[in-house]
TrEMBL record:
Residues 8-130 form the PIN domain. This is Twitching motility protein PilT. It comes from Devosia insulae DS-56. Pfam families: PIN (PF01850). InterPro entries: PIN-like_dom_sf (IPR029060), PIN_dom (IPR002716), PIN_Sll0205 (IPR041705), TA_system_RNase (IPR052919). It comes from the Bacteria. Signal peptide: none annotated. Gene3D superfamilies: 5'-nuclease.
Length: 140
C-alpha cells in the first residue's frame, strides 16, 4: 500500500477546521490519519495573505486581526507552516491548462505539486483540476 501524502489545507479548509465545521468523512479520516501517524498538516503562507484580503474586503467576519488568526491556525494540533519558494511561485505561473485563475489558489496548487501534497479543499475549481490529474485534492 502506498504511503499517503501529507496534506495541504487551502484557506477555507483551514477556517472551517479551526471553527470545528463539518468536514467530509474522507477528509476527516485523512486528517485523523495524519495525526495518528505524526505527519504534519501544512498551511501555506499564502493563507496569511488571503486572510488579510478577506478582512479588508469584509468577506469574512473576523473576531481577531488576520495575523492573529493565522498564528492561531498554527497552534492547532499537527498544523505546520509551509513556506513558499521562488520555484513554487514561478511554477504557479506555469501550471498546465486549464487552471484556476485565482493567484492564491495557483500558489497552493503549485505548492502541492512541488512537495507531493494533497490539497484539502471545497473549491470546486481545484477539485476539477485534480480530476484532470494535475494535482491531488480531497474534498472537505
Amino acid at each position: 500500500m502506498a504511503k499517503p501524502s501529507d496534506l495541504l489545507l487551502d484557506t477555507c479548509a483551514a477556517i472551517w477546521m479551526a471553527q470545528g465545521a463539518h468536514l467530509e468523512p474522507d477528509a476527516l479520516g485523512a486528517i485523523d490519519q495524519s495525526g495518528e501517524e505524526g505527519r504534519p498538516i501544512r498551511l501555506s503562507l499564502i493563507t496569511a495573505w488571503e486572510l488579510g484580503l478577506l478582512a479588508k474586503r469584509g468577506r469574512a467576519a473576523m473576531a481577531q486581526p488576520p495575523g492573529a488568526i493565522f498564528r492561531a491556525f498554527l497552534q492547532l494540533p499537527g498544523i505546520v507552516q509551509q513556506d513558499l519558494t521562488a520555484d513554487i511561485l514561478i511554477d504557479s505561473s506555469q501550471l498546465p491548462q486549464p487552471v484556476h485563475g485565482d493567484p492564491a489558489d495557483r500558489i497552493i496548487i503549485a505548492t502541492a505539486r512541488a512537495l507531493d501534497l494533497t490539497i484539502v479543499t471545497r473549491d470546486r475549481l481545484i477539485l476539477d483540476y485534480a480530476a484532470l490529474g494535475h494535482v491531488r485534492a480531497l474534498a472537505c
